[in-house]
Amino acid sequence: MANDKDRGAVTEARKFQAVPGVRDIPPPESALWNRVEQIARDVLATYGFEDIRLPIFEQTELFARSVGTSTDIVGKEMYSFPDRDETSISLRPEATASVVRAYIEHGMHTRPGDVKLYYMGPMFRRERPQKGRYRQFYQIGAEVLGQSDHPGIDADVIEMVLVFIERCGLPAGRPGSPGHTLYINSIGCKECRPKYVELLRAALVNAKDKLGPDSQRRIETNPLRVLDSKLEAEQAVIEDLPRIADHLCEACREHFKMLQAMLSMRKIAYEVNWRLVRGLDYYMRTTFEITAPGLGAQNAVCGGGRYDGLVELLGGPPTKGIGFALGTDRLILALQEAGKGGAAKALDVYVAWMGPNAYPVAVRVARTLRDAGFSVELPHEEMKFKKALGLAARLEARYAVILGDNEVAAGTVTVKRMADGKQETIPENALTQHLTRVSG
Ligand code: AMP
């Protein structure tokens, strides 16, 4: 056993801070998060999606196979560690792989109709932290798994995300104007994409000396990602590269054309962006991204696309899939930038009591109001009314219920509307009804 001297060394006070890139979401901001998550649940339910709760960590191999070993996410950003039995475990960098794993593990393909699942929660990537980019960040995402790859499914998924974003308070914009913007692309299928990638690689090899080291490396590992480059010096080269739209097979071209018709039918504005390739290996055909204003460099709030081969790749039956992941942190930032970050204050009533007999009545009043659904703050130390009412104002309570000797003796309560100081004294047993009426 450690002696007292040893123990003294470890019990010395020390302050801690959250690890870089990781943060708390304290109130009142957490109220905005709850509001956004509740809107997501409501909207997703109207489109027939059901919640799936997934593990935070999985076998590393799952992500290596699905997201792809040549991606930055798997190659350098995952938090991986050997478990005690030496299997490599990773904190999830995204959740589509887990949804697909769960779909296969639970034999969900036998369910009637398309399987529509959504999730929300933290993801982990060891990226360079900056505004809108964290090492623990949050996503709200959904997947449709089934037998059809009809572009109407893609359009419905996109419509659903846009409805959600708009209901949160971000207006839709047109490309180049304020509001969020939808970009779409098709990145082909296993028939046409490899041929295009080879063409692209050849063109990149020719232009190699005009590219920076990251892009040079990607010529071999993942040439599509070069199209994502934001480096000013590379833009001219990229503009001259072959474009996938000119190399799609007949089926992919038709699918992309129909997707655009399906979006127009839903009156959804979009812009085709041939450089939108996204950083994960499993995507094919439809890819899309939604950007929001006011976020600086990290302006993508949502990314998604089709991944028809993924279920098979992970050992399941042939299945089509499409989904999206929306960055909750960034949506919240965009809402705050747009002045839509306020969340209604939660405190309805502050119970200000004074005098030896008032506390038991205050306890009873608080319980009655809470049972009726009001949020109530009940102080337990006696204080002067002036101080109690000052606190009620600082806590932004909508009402103060005042209980002094007079009220207790008469079986009444005094209700003070904090906004304008208007007071009324009413019987205690009429309080719930009174507050329901005036605050409704
Ligand atoms: P991805 O899973 O890479 O397709 O990303 C989907 C969305 O998640 C992006 O559009 C971002 O909104 C969000 N996101 C991705 N990485 C981060 C991060 N490191 N910090 C905050 N949000 C992120």
Can you offer a commentary on this structure?
With 440 residues, the protein is of the alpha+beta class. The protein is 37% helix and 20% strand. It has helices at 4-11, 29-46, 60-66, 72-77, 96-105, 151-168, 193-206, 213-221, 235-239, 250-265, 310-313, 328-337, 358-371, 385-394, 405-410, 431-439; strands at residues 50-51, 57-59, 80-82, 88-91, 115-124, 136-146, 181-186, 271-272, 284-291, 300-306, 320-327, 349-353, 376-377, 399-403, 412-417, 423-427. The strands form three sheets. It has an eight-stranded mixed sheet, sandwiched between helices. Strand 3 and strand 4 form a beta hairpin. Helix 2 runs antiparallel to helix 6 (151-168) and helix 6 (151-168) runs parallel beside helix 10 (250-265). Adenosine monophosphate (AMP) binds at residues 94, 125, 127, 132-134, 137, 139, 279, 300-303, 325, 327, 329-330. The site of adenosine monophosphate (AMP) has 17 residues, from strand 6, strand 10, strand 11 and helix 12.
Fraction of residues in β-strands: 15-25%
Q: What would the average pLDDT be, to the nearest integer?
A: 93
Low-confidence stretches: none
Number of helices: 16
Specify Rg, calculated over alpha carbons: 28 Å
Kindly report the spatial arrangement of strands forming the biggest sheet: 1-5-6-11-10-9-7-8
What structural class do the secondary elements suggest? alpha+beta
Beginning-to-end CA distance, first to last residue: 63 Å
Report on the biggest sheet.
Answer: 8 strands, mixed
Distinct small molecules = adenosine monophosphate
Envelope shape:
elongated
Helix content: 25-40%
What is the tally of beta strands?
Answer: 16
